[in-house]
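PROTOCOL LOG
Step 1. Enter all chains and additional molecules of the complex.
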Amino acid sequence: MEIFGIPTALLGSQLLVGLINGSFYAILSLGLAIIFGLLNIINFCHGAQYMMGAFVAWIALTRFGISYWVALIVAPLIVGAVGVVIERLMLRRLYKLDHLYGLLLTFGLALIFEGIFRDQFGISGESYEVPELLSGGVNLGFMFLPIYRGWVIVASLTVCFGTWYMIERTKLGAYLRAGTENSQMVQALGINVPLLITFTYGYGVALAAFAGVLAAPIFQVNPLMGSNLIIVVFAVVVIGGMGSIMGSILTGLGLGLIEGLTKVFYPEASSVVVFVIMVIVLLVRPAGLFGKS
Amino acid sequence: MLSKKFATTACAAALAALSCGAQAQVSGGSVKIGVLTDLSGTYSDLAGSGAVLATKMAIDDFIANEKPNFKIEMVSADHQNKADIASNKAREWIEREGVDTVTELVTTSTALAVMKVAKEKDRIVIMNGPASTPITNEQCNDVSVHYTYDTYAVANGTAKAVTTGGGKTWFFLTADYAFGQALEKDATAVVTANGGKVLGSVRHPFPGSDFSSFLLKAQASGAQVIGLANAGADTTNAIKQASEFGITPKQSLAGLLMFITDIHALGLKSTQGMYLTEGFYWDRNDETRAWSKRFFDKQKKMPTMVQAGQYSSIYHYLKAVKAAGTDDTTKVMAMMKKTPINDFFAKNGQIREDGRMVHDMYLMQVKKPADSKYPWDYYTIKAVIPAAEAFQPLSLSRCPLIKK
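Step 2. Run joint prediction.
Step 3. Record the structure below.
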């Protein structure tokens, strides 16, 4: 059976692959959206923090024999802690200023982090093996799905929707949202807003690092792995609407699928399609698909 | 009487000038070599600081062995793989700092840009990192040397070996820019010439990171061999993901341009059995081992063919300056082309009229993890491709310097 001259089996497998990439977009754009929504900072070192997550996992495995499963928890904690330090020492001074300052600072940090890792590990990068439990694959009839890729979808969707639930449905989330609306009032009610903000940034960074650990067995772990991805992720956030939590998750998954389809019909355009959509969305709905204008 | 005295004086002067001629007449009192390479980007492992080190080693060894009566200096800079940065830097070096030769130049676009500047300013360019064949064809000039390898040589070696070894049907995964397309074109010609068939190809954006969609297409094509017409991180990611999706070992991969640093980064588990063509392997004989160990002590990595070629080409250049007794571009180029190259890198290497240095290339197969006995023990040399076959013959040249 064929649709537009493409066998359905191939189409199905491409859609699934698109969904896997979409899960990465979702989890990365979610982190960016949280940080922007609550801190008003455009976190340009998100890609570098994603890369650091992957490298921490690799260092943990090769130097200390720490398994993938432990790294999945530990790497986000370590990179998140670095994020907390950055927020306390540097970002904190910029909240009152224009977005541009935060963007420049984080962009500079991204270049520094990438430079340090490039100096230490070289550009070809390192290989991280798929963990034993998740190696191999299953035959779905229309494609051979590596078990690890299936796990990526499950893990990232769980984390994404868990985060959404925490922010939109719990008391902590309510404090966070209230803190960004009117921090003085919330502070007057006895809630430590600066601490909340620090926590938020740390959490956003930890999400990036988590995605990095998920990516390590799939992609070559190299210092520039984040810089290739981050531009697309920014486009995803813009399309979804800056600061919209659910918007960034759904847009991430959706764009992964669209990109997957483009790779079937016209592969040359697959790196551009996201930006074409971004332009159209900005023209029609400047606040993004899910954003409030 | 007077005329006799004049004659003796003139004679003495002439003699003095002659003996002076044996002393190299170098402009500015020293020979200055500029290493323009990628020090921070995608190609910084295969060229980069290793190429700078190789240049330094060549200069030090030359001074120690040949005791030249001129000074040798080196400058280096990062061209960031951008043609405009490369040509501006080369111009600045030549005009203000008196650089005599600009070398390395990984990434074809930077190489082509600097070749133009060098031709205009009458300086020498020695290229080791760039791969594309137009350097010695459409874009060739008489001040340039393309030393280590090119797309023709690597595609030719690997595609021929794989096709004649039974891999008759091919599918190409091609980086969507000039280099990838050139590589695919060169390899396709070799595959069909050897009785193989190309079933299709897919062009992927450059740089890419997820290749699974393209690999699934390649898988659906049913081709025996998937030819990777790309380089660097694109190649390593594609290989990694091919094994993840169970494509290898059912279908085999042929990396058309790979370096030992790529194999090192991926590990033998996912690369074992692959064929690739290189111009140098550190573990080939005692001579290559001796040089490579010295390199390793400083760089902590074994040299790539680009870095080994960089050493060899700089040494050859300096020898030509000494032999010609000048750093004049035309005379040094003539000397470089006249003198065969015999060192650990090349045996009877020869720089042709089109600037192509022809030397033996090696078809390698990546070892199984179990067969690798010590660090960097990665290849078995399957065949030596003699210089005459390895590179594009002059009869097919599109270089205007070649008169037919």
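Step 4. Note key features.
Residues 2-22 of chain B form the longest helix (21 residues).
The longest strand of chain B covers residues 30-37.
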